[in-house]
Amino acid sequence: KPGIDPAAEPASTLDSEITFVPDGNPGKSAVFRHATHTQWLSCKNCHPALFKKRSENLQFTHDDMDAGKYCGACHKKVVVLPGGCKGCHAGKKPAAQAAA
């Protein structure tokens, strides 16, 4: 199903992973897995209202999420994150760090 809105239309999706690396704190990086979300949501559920284009340097905090922004629009309100913190902060190092 392309989304919770009955009028949502199917769209092609990218099942890539995006690693968010906080400025000055790479140890707190988080991984977003498109494939987990595109199983039941279309792109329009998040883009462009919650997340802009991929090319933008996106920085956000847990305070932003607690305020219902970004991932918090769902995960702090109606969706429980399986695995708690490790669902996103699984200890996966960003590519730049992994090579170091």
Q: How would you explain this protein's 3D organization?
A:
- Residues 94-100 have low confidence and may be disordered.
- The chain has four helices and two strands.
- Helix content is 19%, strand content 8%.
- The chain has a two-stranded antiparallel ribbon.
- With 100 residues, the chain is α+β, with helices and mostly antiparallel strands.
- The longest helix is centred in the middle third of the chain and has 5 residues, at 34-38.
Topology:
Blueprint: E1 17-20, E2 30-33, H1 34-38, H2 62-66, H3 72-75, H4 95-99
Antiparallel strand pairs: 1-2
Task: Summarize the entry for a quick read.
The protein is an alpha+beta fold. 19% of the residues lie in helices and 8% in strands. The protein starts with 16 loop residues before the first strand and ends with a helix.
Features:
100 residues; alpha+beta; two-stranded antiparallel sheet; 4 helices; 2 strands; 19% helix; 8% strand; globular
